[in-house]
Amino acid sequence: MKHTGFIFDLDGVVVDTAKYHYLAWKKLANQLGFEFTIDQNELFKGVSRKRCLEILLDIGGVIATQKQFDTWMIEKNEDYLRYIEAMDSSEILPDVPKVLNYLKSNKIPIALGSASKNARPILEKVNLLSYFDVIVDGNHVTKAKPNPEVFLMAAEQLGINPENCIVFEDAVAGIQAANAAKMISIGIGDAKILSEAKYNFLDFTHIELSFLETLIS
Hints:
globular, 6-stranded parallel β-sheet, 8 helices, alpha/beta, DNA polymerase, domain 1, 2 domains
């Protein structure tokens, strides 16, 4: 068996926290006097909080001072944290534990590579923290996806060559980051949107353990 590592994005891959981000951004947009739709929220997938706010203000045609910008960033995050406070293991996306258990039982190193600055508390709340050997999140990186920094850092901390790493992602920017890192990219979600991924699955219920076996053998 070659030395293989698996890297998971968090939002939309392991847990569905995207809905809470959306609610927090929508609340802010409404406060600023405009609507923010679920379709527009697609622009925020795999994007840093700072860039999300820039896009949101652009959508609303809102000009902000640096002080207002910083305040709104904090407000949005506080709202989001209030939403995730009530999270539990019911928020884990279907069959994610099946895949994590398989990898763990085969002693395959597992990392998280996420833009979220709240990755660790979320994993704690849903009781998945113990599965991850390495966590690289928004607190550790300076460059957002599609820059491959987050995945390259995860590979380095796992002690595995990037080309032997497999990445699960639900965002175009994340797939591009995995590809830029020369890793095997697996898109979780709409194959038409994630067409740059090497493999595509609608969700983890469509992933057979035999497929994982071929990746690690």
